[in-house]
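Q: Okay, next protein. This is Ribonuclease PH from Pseudovibrio axinellae. I've checked the sequence twice, so it should be correct. Can you predict the 3D structure?
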Amino acid sequence: MNRPSKRTPDEMRAVSLERGVSKHAEGSCLIKFGDTHVLCTASLEERIPPWLRGQNRGWVTAEYGMLPRATNDRMRRESSAGKQSGRTQEIQRLIGRSLRAVVDLEALGERQITIDCDVIQADGGSRTASITGAWVALHDCLAWMEARDMVKVEKVLKDHIAAISCGIYEGTPVADLDYIEDSSADTDANFVMTGKGGIVEIQGTAEGEPFSEEELGQLMGLAKQSINKLVELQKLTVL
């Protein structure tokens, strides 16, 4: 089996994480998974959702969007259409859930951190890249707060979180699908896991023939291996 990118089945695309790319945001990260590039910014807000008032805990949420020329053809801005697509809403909820899984909201205090994930260029895996880069932006926002005696990073941030797409392409389980593979894969799955190996979310769909339990196990193995590498890269980035 030859992948279009010539990668081996367990080989990810080249991944890079660049911190401090936004002058104004409390935390920011530009993450690149091959030709998928996402700008993640973390903004501290001294407010919380109304339904959280009086509970002595904060909130972490996310927004996601794709720039008009992130893909081959220009897309209309969702703000021009007057509403977000179902896909956009689903992805930003996924990012928010993933981050909250490793955050102690009581230790955060009555504050909200909003992570904006803007896809500059898309070639598959934009949601998984967003989650992985968002963790770095969140970490740096909390470090900004710690420098001002607002919180302690180690008390708020309980673990790392990262994500990867895996799938079955031409009958073979592979890691980190790019667009060509994603658009023709037999099975497409997204895995979100913590640095300690905890599973936060698995999204898997058979596009053609149903996949077996054995194949799911193979995809899980690829995901664990890839996410371990991403967590190590996060650790190196925030040193």
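A: Here is a summary of the prediction. The chain has one domain: 15-72+82-238. The mean pLDDT is 95.
Q: Noted. On to the next one.
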